[in-house]
Specification:
Elements (H helix, E strand, L loop, with lengths): L1 H6 L2 H12 L14 H22 L2 H17 L5 H14 L4 H21 L3 H15 L7 H29 L5 H17 L11 H18 L2 H18 L7 H8 L9 H11 L5 E5 L3 H7 L2 E2 L6 H6 L3 H10 L5 E4 L11 H9 E7 L2 E6 L12 E2 L2
Parallel strand pairs: 1-2, 1-3
Antiparallel strand pairs: 3-5, 4-5, 4-6
Helix pairs in contact: 2-10, 3-4, 3-5, 4-6, 5-6, 5-9, 8-10, 8-11, 9-10, 13-14, 16-17
Length: 389
Amino acid sequence: MAVALRLAGRLAACACGLLMATVGASPFLESFTLAGELLSSLPAILSLLVFTAYLRSRATGWLVLAGVLTGCAVMVKQSAFDAGLAIVVYLLWTERRRAARPVGVLVAAAAAPVLAGAFAAVDLHRWWYAVVGYRGEGDSILTGSFVHRLHLLWDSAPAAAKGLGVLALLAIAGWRSSHPLIRLWLGAAVLGVVGGGNFHPHYYLQLVPPLAVLAGVGVQVLVERRAWWVAGVGAAALVATAAVTVPLWFDGSQAQAKEIWPHDPHLLHDGAVARYIEAHTGPGQRVLLIWAAADVYYLADRAPAIPYMWRRNIEAIPGALEDARAAIADRRAALVAAVQSPRSLDRTGKTAALLASRYRPVAVVDGVPIYAPLGTGVTAGRKEGSRAP
């Protein structure tokens, strides 16, 4: 709202805040989850707000602070370069030859948090791979099958339409009247979303702040010009958004999960799996989820047997699959929960064979097989939602 107030006016700011807190907080974008996109948006937006202070006073201190905040945003989420990129392009566009000094100051200040993180790392090479190399080599729009990326984009389109439709329509109405910095911000945010390549619904949260500001400008334009037919289209879109969203309030947790995460069925039984693991392991013991259910580690308060908590990590990181197999072979995990079939990722059957030779089934919790190492005293359990195999 403060950014919109500085760049567009009071009416746009009020509309921006109202839109961002309602349609912009759509559950279809997983806005209720603590995603990196949500966390990084705070320093990113603050950097833009500070930059507007620089535009007013031309004090170098504001530019330094804007750069530091941009660097902090990137350290939270690699795609959160949107505000910094928008500022750099705006300076190059408006300052022309005089842009070298302010751009240099901004970039140098943005590098400070990044360098601090690099120097604080125990292993610089591993830090670089985790922060930069993993995305660049194994999990970005530039790697893997382009057709697969298009398929992921297509799958995420309905959620994006439900979550961003109203904002997008109003943003179109306010586009020509908006400050160039806001338009650049949206363009940079789009690059951040596309660069991720996987198009998870929570990726689109990065578009909400710039779209909300532009939508606020759109509301202001509609009021000032009395373009009622355009306002009517926006109102119809708002009603449609409410029609698909409000029923979720009255659904049970399982129905909500099915609607919002149709491709993540393990979320329906992760709570029961976590309760079983917590009851049958000690606080110092490690567990393994095949292939991914990162929330179970947290809910059960048990450390993972391998440092990869997402399926995509094991698919994309060199040596990750071998590490998972080694953990099973060495029986590092006190319990193994097969939330997905071992063969769904490892079609060679090696993981399944290792699991059968090193572990034995002890329970089935809401359809999820649980295994304990051979020779241990874990017995088949009948926890809530579980049955003996």
